[in-house]
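Holo prediction. Input below; ligand is nicotinamide-adenine-dinucleotide.
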Amino acid sequence: MRLSQIKQVAVIGAGIMGHGFAQVFAQKGFPVFLHDVNKQILKKASLRIASNLDTFIKHGIIRQKEKKAALEKITTSTDLGEAVGKADFVLEAIPEIMDLKKEAFTKLDQLAPPHTILASNTSGLSITEIGAVTRRPEKTIITHGGNPPHIIPVIEIVRGEKTSDETAELTYRLMLKLGKKPVRLLKEVPGFLFNRLQFALYREALHCLEAGVATAEDIDLVVKAGYGFRLPVLGPFETSDFGGLDTFYRICQNLFPLLDASKEPPLSLKKLVGEGKLGVKTGEGFYRYPPAIARRKIKERDRRLLHQLKLFQARK
Ligand code: NAD
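Structure of the complex:
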């Protein structure tokens, strides 16, 4: 298959990630079937996409007519066969549960045409294992993007043991066509790069909170106004080159033995999850989010991220 032959797309799962990916494809002119098992979620996904596009208009990223054109490209369906029957590229974004992914890939393999690439947005599961349930493991691959996927540029491309060069190359070029920044991993490792790095920081942040080093607000502030403030400009290796590798070496010697190395999620997180305090989606997590505040915070997050996106796209 050639890149120009990827015409029809299907996104499976219309939750946090799926609706955003459907929008990304639609904005680049691809007809997209957005599929979910739940009709209400599909309705909510369409509203979310319209709202995301309104935010794009407000910040000068697109014009009104581009919103209309994008919305016209998206068809929602609870019928998986209808959604993938003519798809050239399928992106799965259902919950991070191996058995669910395997069940979905078994059905996708049966219902999608033989040439179709089956991609997963899994945050860290093995595509070798998921792809093994299909008759086309060479056409399975991971395209892992960050949340919100309609804004965050990077897409990690992870091959399974049997993913073909053709699938990897086509997928890479498709992500470029979508305006994304694809990164090829050289080997398949759990969590890929994005989540290995993100969760190394998360583990230490949770540890500092539990150990009473600072409040959640202040830990978030040290990241946003300190360590994280520099990150859009300098990655960790660039940061250490600028800071001096001798200094970084000494800090590694002093600090590595003291950093948290827990193998389990901390009790504080387990307790919040047990109480149904799942964050923005349930109105409370580490902070409280009554509905009006949740809506305002999501808009504010997107406004700031779009500002950052413009700076990112403007750099050479
Ligand atoms: P979500 O719970 O918001 O959405 C999942 C959707 O899939 C739900 O709407 C659910 O109804 C639907 N679904 C469940 N079973 C299905 C099936 N068999 N067929 C079709 N639809 C089905 O989850 P999410 O946060 O969008 O995560 C989706 C995937 O993306 C996961 O693998 C996750 O690890 C990954 N991911 C999530 C994030 C994040 O920050 N949320 C970031 C990167 C990657």
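The longest helix spans residues 291-314. That is the main takeaway for now.
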